[in-house]
Write a structure and sequence with these properties.
heterodimer, A: 478 residues, 19 helices, 74% helix, B: 277 residues, alpha/beta, seven-stranded mixed β-sheet, 12 helices
């Protein structure tokens, strides 16, 4: 039975091979032509178009504006600034409510309860000062901006705006030597880089797919938007009068996101001229019709899909990270805590690039999830330096609102330069471990996966280093 | 009292049909039928998928949203269905990974049948894919989606004419507002239980030299793999030099196809299948 089948299949393949020569090279085109003729024929019979001339077409009018050469980019920037401005100006109040509740009220109660049942001090430290506080930080810092930003972003997506952004960017991608579809995987990366990695499957050429994967990290992901928004609100907004603060913070966040897009182009351009040389392939991008967003449904799904998902992931990583933070801050070797050793070891490097040792340690702890960087920085700063907010005792030091969050950071040695460089480093550093793992699963290549992790990390160090040097130089002149 | 008459009336009552649909979400134990959900990008496949399974696969108004397959289940009229949402593609010629995933599942995954979601406002282009699916399998239901949008644009689509031309059932729907889903379920049920049998239209008017080449290959294929349901299409792909089909001929994947459903399908190549977020 088996040998017969093998012979048969060999025969068939041989026949196919020889017939292919007979049919000629334009076989594929002929086949497609047949297919299209058939489809047109059937469609023509089934569809009746309205007799009168095409009416005023709202879709086309909107498209003329949002994809125009002159206004397309400007509108894009304005629209995203508006979204962040709304997010920033609305997030402050609920943020304070949540931290009042979780940290101002529940935290002392938990400590009280632990004391009452006679819990050992180290267990109380790990559970309450470590795990509970880290989780509470994550919730109060991240939940409000996410709950506002994600629904807004999803509304834009549902309306049909994202493909227009892709359309605007397509030309630039092509100039950079990358595939136009990369604009779509980049859009996906603005949600989640791991999802962005998977979405590069729509790119058929392996060369261009690698470019898309290597640069996906420059699209700010869910886990990094809150970091950007918070740091911009605290430090950039404070530079201008209060009534402009929200707008300026929003501009700063958009600026960082735009820088990410710019880096995507530059790195793509560089890659196509060095390790990934080759021709650009073309494709057709379909602009879907605008659809009135289903507002309630969109808000519901984006809260479930994105906000709760990201928050849950953050909490999942924050609780163990909280325990780790507490441990490194409290395990002492010859009078100094582990954290102090690590931080003072990292500090020279941190200072050199305009950050500090605490931030670098936070980025190491936060490799599994970018979401917990800021909470980790805050906790490490407080635990190591023993800083309390001015005038507050040890028990109420976590009475936070944005002002005292900033006070903690400033006391930890933060300057405007630290804030700017943190925003830059948050944009340009290694992807989270989930993204790295996804890339490895998709490509099966250790080499490219390693490059995807190390390239942005190296760039991050370089960029922050240069900014710090120039900044200090200029500051010394003034 | 005539019980048969009563049931018949029930089946046309929307209330009864909605009550009949049991969204099973991810709980898909012992399904009776496997349905593949195919279609061009951005035609509302994921919306149909969500409406039937009760899952909340993220839907978005842009092409390329679903790049890997998602699975969910539902129960209708006492039959359990497993629904597989495939990446949206314009063709099944497998030039990129998403097209390959869709194509390989329809061909080698051996779903009991395929629901092709087509955009009523862009029928011509959408039919290109539908016709290709019809070449592979005759167990197809066409879900003519976005009828509400077609109406807004003043288009009238004659679904009966379309059904006649394609030779398979066509169900007009507006999945966003859940219009027509009952009829879709009913049609799915009828096709699944064999009440409706499609006689699909195959490509016509191909050039004579092509026709001859196809005939020769089909004959050989039928001899080597008796019972192969789509010899004509396989012949076309072999003529086009499709790598994964050449592989399937060599490694016996095609022989298993010919043996009919119930066999473990041989998935060729590095098929990475998982639910996307």
């Amino acid at each position: 039975m088996k040998p017969v089948a093998v012979n048969n299949s060999r025969d068939i393949l041989a026949t196919a091979q020889s017939l292919r020569w007979e049919v000629g090279e334009d076989f594929h085109e002929k086949l497609m032509e047949t297919l299209y003729t058939n489809a047109t024929e059937i469609a023509d019979r089934a569809v009746t178009r309205p007799g009168e001339k095409p009416r005023f077409d709202l879709d086309r009018t909107i498209d003329h504006i949002v994809t125009s050469r002159r206004w397309g980019f400007l509108l894009m920037i304005l629209l995203f600034t508006l979204v962040f401005w709304i997010t920033i100006s609305l997030a402050n109040v609920p943020s304070r409510w949540i931290s009042d509740l979780l940290i101002g009220t529940i935290y002392p109660l938990l400590n009280q309860a632990a004391a009452n049942i006679g819990m050992p001090w180290w267990l109380q430290g790990i559970l309450i000062d470590g795990m509970y506080l880290a989780t509470a930080w994550v919730v109060s810092v991240m939940l409000p901006p996410m709950a506002i930003f994600f629904p807004l972003f999803t509304l834009l997506e549902d309306f049909g705006y994202l493909p227009r952004v892709a359309f605007n960017l397509d030309n630039v991608f092509k100039k950079a030597g990358a595939h136009g579809k990369q604009s779509l995987s980049m859009m996906m990366g603005f949600g989640c880089n791991a999802a962005g990695m998977i979405s590069t499957r729509i790119i058929d050429s392996p060369r261009e797919r690698f470019i898309a994967m290597l640069t996906n990290n420059f699209a700010l992901c869910n886990g990094r938007w809150p970091t950007q928004i918070l740091v911009a609100t605290l430090f950039i907004g404070a530079l201008v009068p209060a009534y402009l603060a929200g707008f300026f913070s929003a501009l700063a966040v958009v600026g960082v996101a735009m820088l990410g897009v710019l880096l995507t182009f530059l790195v793509s351009w560089f890659l196509t001229r060095s390790v990934l040389k080759g021709e650009v392939s073309s494709f057709s991008l379909e602009l879907p019709p605008y659809r009135p967003p289903r507002i309630l449904q969109t808000i519901y799904t984006s809260l479930i899909d994105r906000t709760i998902y990201v928050l849950w992931r953050a909490i999942l990583f924050a609780a163990p990270a909280g325990a780790v933070i507490w441990l490194v801050a409290n395990i002492t070797v010859s009078g100094q805590s582990l954290a102090e050793y690590i931080v003072s070891f990292l500090n020279p490097l941190g200072i050199l690039i305009g950050l500090n040792g605490v931030i670098l340690l936070a980025y190491i702890i936060a490799i599994p999830a970018n979401e917990i960087v800021i909470p980790t920085v805050l906790m490490l700063t407080m635990l190591i330096t023993g800083i309390t907010t001015p005038g507050a005792g040890a028990g109420v030091m976590f009475e936070t609102d944005l002002e005292s969050t900033k006070a903690i950071l400033v006391a930890g040695g933060w300057t405007l330069l630290t804030a700017v460089n943190l925003m830059l480093f948050s944009l340009v550093h290694n992807p989270c471990s989930t993204t790295i793992y996804t890339m490895y699963k998709e490509t099966g290549s250790r080499k490219w996966t390693t490059l995807a992790a190390l390239l942005p990390l190296g760039m991050g160090f370089a960029i922050t280093f240069i900014v710090a040097q120039v900044w200090r130089l200029v500051a010394s002149w003034i | 009292m005539n019980p048969e008459l009563n049931t018949e009336q029930c089946e046309t009552c929307p209330m009864h049909n909605s009550a009949n649909l049991l969204k099973l979400g991810l709980d898909m134990q012992d399904w009776d039928y496997v349905i593949a959900l195919a279609g061009n990008p951005n035609t509302g496949k994921s919306t149909v998928f969500n409406a039937l399974t009760g899952l909340r696969q993220h839907t978005g108004n842009w092409p390329g949203k679903t790049v890997s397959r998602a699975e969910g289940g539902f129960e209708y009229a006492a039959k359990k269905y497993k629904l597989v949402d495939l990446p949206g593609t314009y063709s099944l010629l497998a030039t990129s990974l998403d097209e390959e995933i869709a194509r390989d599942f329809i061909l080698f995954g051996q779903p009991d049948f395929t629901v092709v979601v087509v955009d009523a406002t862009r029928l011509e282009r959408n039919l290109n894919l539908a016709l290709q699916v019809l070449e592979i399998t005759d167990r197809v239901v066409i879900c003519l989606n976005l009828m509400d949008e077609a109406q807004r644009h003043g288009l009238q689509v004659d679904e009966r004419r379309l059904a006649k031309d394609l030779g398979v059932p066509v169900v007009p729907t507006s999945a966003r507002s859940k219009d027509g889903l009952e009829l879709l379920l009913k049609t799915i049920h009828e096709v699944a239980t064999g009440k409706t049998v499609g006689k699909p239209r195959r490509f016509q008017n191909e050039p004579p030299e092509l026709k001859q080449a196809i005939q020769i290959l089909v004959k050989q294929l039928n001899e080597a793999f008796p019972g192969l349901p789509n010899a004509r299409w396989v012949a076309l792909r072999l003529l086009d030099g499709d790598e994964s089909l050449v592989q399937a001929v060599q490694n016996g994947g095609l022989a298993e196809l010919a043996a009919g459903p119930g066999q473990t399908p041989a998935l060729p190549g590095n098929l990475e299948l998982e639910a996307s977020s």
